[in-house]
Amino acid sequence: MSDLINLPDAARLVEGLRDTGYNFRTAAADIIDNSIAAGATRVEVRLEMLTDGRKLVLFGDDGCGMDADGLFAAMRYGADERPDPSSLGKFGLGLKTASSAVCRCFTVVSRTGGDQPLAKLTWDLDHVRECNSWEMLREPVTVDEDEAFEELCGEHGTLVVWSQCDRLLTREYQVAGGTHEKNAMDRLAEQLRKHASLVYHRFLDAGDERVRTVSLSVNGEAVTPWNPFFPSRAEQVLPENQTVIEIGDADTVLGRATIRAWILPHRNDLSEEEKAQARISNSAQGFYVFREGRLIHSGGWLGVFGALEPHLSLLRIEFDFGHELDVAFNVDVKKSRISLDPGLEGGLKALLSPAYREANLRYRRRSSATAGSASGPDHSGANRTIGETKSTSGPVVSDVDVAAGTGTVNNHRGQGITIKIRVDNNVTSDCVHLEAVDDITDGRLWEPALRSVGEGEHRTGVRLNARHDFYRKIYAGVARDAEAVEGMDLLFWALATAEFNCTDKEIQTVFEDLRDDISGNLKKLLRPVPFPEETVDTPGRDPTPTDAG
């Protein structure tokens, strides 16, 4: 053996390779990639928790499977290059690095046909650490593994089992295997369904002829495709002759990529069902990059344009390339990140700028047409957002006394906290969380309140003082910009909810004084600011900037 061969320390390296940036969703997707690469038409994922709290994740597919020699090669860190270069598997590392990112022990069971024996190999990180050698375990197939293979794979295919899952959940639970931990596992399964519905939406859509169809289920529930471009309602605005881009340098064309620019309808033009399908949000704008039909990047502008911009939330870019451009785009081992050459960034910016401006104009024009009526700023958007966002943290309202003007809540200060508070009953549903009113006479800009559409089930809300200069000057000044109005509304609702979360009878006056100070200082600061109707057009300046490109 050459004295220049310097083998890595197995114990240290196998531990270090756990930290390559995977989370559960991206790790699971790497295993699913291997199933698709093996020709599977069906992939099933199971998240199981035993009564003692031990957790397992099983992946089963009906792909071509492997014999003992093939399995041995596949389990090697840096496995042989696949015969098909277009395979979703790329570096020969995904199975190992993805699995070890979540668990300390992973087993693969496979066979090529019903008349063949099951081949099984295991990587146990504790065993590697103890013997400090790249040594796998070859153990008999257990009864549970045999039954799981028959159920999830059938005659042929591959079963991957993650055990000793020390990184599956992000926290330890006091009662192992209890209700809270089971709920966390259910949430994890739902997160994987949502992730896979986007990443593999082309494979899951039987009507998409660009790739073959694959069925995928998580805990027995089928994953349905989510197409981020909403083609049934969105418009593809790039001319057809501009949708193919040659990638390379002056002398060599490495390959061709395709690009499409989709502008979705404004959310005010969508039904509730369509809003759920479109999922329009600030973070969803930008590039969706596909390699061989599999999504590897979603959202953001990749340096082509600047930061995320609310007025661009309707624009989504579909960008496709094949394996021959992997080098050009620096695809990472997780297949979740790419980088663009500066020259390509400039070309894409020039190509997409018309679509960028058009999406901006459509958003602003639609917002302008639906916001800022004669009655003032429209607060319905904030009320919808607050009502539809279930993950916000607020106190639990246990009782109210309308006559006494008090409410009893469970908050950060304890249980059964009684506070003096405004109570509003029988308010309309479109202003139950936030409403601008003209009956606040103490000079404060806002006040928290307990509000209900009936006479029970009160929730935290906020009342804005429509007579305060901030409302009359700032709110009125941006009334035609729905995003600006909603952003300020959400800020005041969050401030009121924070007060509910942190107050009790002893310190309630501290919050009242804080609102006095803020409201008074804002009024003083706004004295030189004219009311919107007093604004004079400045030469050379667009008098209606919300309509500008």
> What's the helix count?
15
Number of strands: 20
Low-confidence stretches are 534-549
Multimeric organization: single chain
Average of pLDDT: 88
Shape: globular
β content, as a range?
A: 15-25%
List the strand order in the largest sheet: 4-3-5-2-1-6-7
What is the helix fraction of residues, given as a range? 25-40%
Helix-strand makeup class:
alpha+beta
Radius of gyration: 29 Å
Q: What is the first-to-last residue Cα distance?
A: 68 Å
Salient structural properties:
549 residues, alpha+beta, seven-stranded mixed beta sheet, six-stranded mixed beta sheet, 21% strand, globular
Please provide a brief summary of the model.
With 549 residues, the protein is of the alpha+beta class. Helix content is 32%, strand content 21%. β1 and β2 (55-61) form a beta hairpin.
How is this structure best described in words?
By secondary structure, this protein is α+β, with helices and mostly antiparallel strands. The strands form four sheets. Strands 4-3-5-2-1-6-7 form a seven-stranded mixed sheet, with helices on both faces. Strands 8, 9, 10, 11, 12 and 13 form a six-stranded mixed sheet that branches. The chain has a four-stranded mixed sheet with strand order 17-19-20-18. Helix content is 32%, strand content 21%. The protein has helices spanning 10-16, 24-37, 68-74, 94-100, 125-131, 143-152, 179-199, 201-204, 272-278, 326-329, 342-370, 380-388, 469-477, 482-502, 508-525; strands spanning 42-49, 55-61, 105-111, 119-124, 157-163, 215-218, 221-222, 235-236, 244-248, 253-263, 286-291, 294-298, 315-321, 396-401, 406-411, 414-420, 422-424, 434-437, 446-451, 459-465. The protein has 15 helices and 20 strands. Mean pLDDT is 88; it is low at 534-549.
